[in-house]
Amino acid sequence: MKNCVVYILLLFVGAISTKCRFGEKKKDVISLNQNEVVFKKWLVDTLITLNKEPSKLSEELTNSKQIVADDSLSFSIIKTYKFFSNERVKEPVVTNVLSLLKEYDELPTVNYSLSFSTEELFYTSTVSNLKYYFISEIKGIKIRTAEANIEYKYIRGRLSGKRIQTNSNPLNKTVVIYDFDWNGNKLLKRKVE
User: What is the model's pTM?
Assistant: First the structure.
């Protein structure tokens, strides 16, 4: 009988502690539906503002488009840029990419064209105090000269490598690939192929 009473008490204490733990979790759980509603309201306001004042295309900004996901839980702004070395820089993002190339000693000394795109991605936050998460990326950095086409790999604010295709012989185009590694403050360019 004593064992039965002890067993019932343990069962009762376990049930109460389990109920307390589930009650605590409910306070920490964020209502995804509420965050979705907040994001969608922000998206509607943002689209109204962007449509009133669209990005003005220029010599450097050649294309700009907005993409809303089917469920309206993410939103992207994709802009395409093109810059020629004999022109004056007008867009700050072009200046940033040129500075990055200069930091890696990759800025050509001959006439060149530079092209790349940026993507600003906004999506629903799981944190109750934030309306959205934001990611900004640069994609497809390419330089074209009379001698070669160079395409750079860009990851998290840094160049991680390049692919060079020479234009010297149209029948036999040479392709060379380099990886960029940092050893402390020293940049190492390692030929892969």
Answer: 0.75
Please count the other Cβ atoms lying within 10 Å of the Cβ belonging to residue 66: 15
Q: Which of 192, 186, 183, 163 is nearest to 104 (CA)?
A: 186
Is pLDDT of 175 > 80? yes
- Give the chain's end-to-end CA distance (angstroms, integer): 80
* In the chain, where the domains are located: 30-191
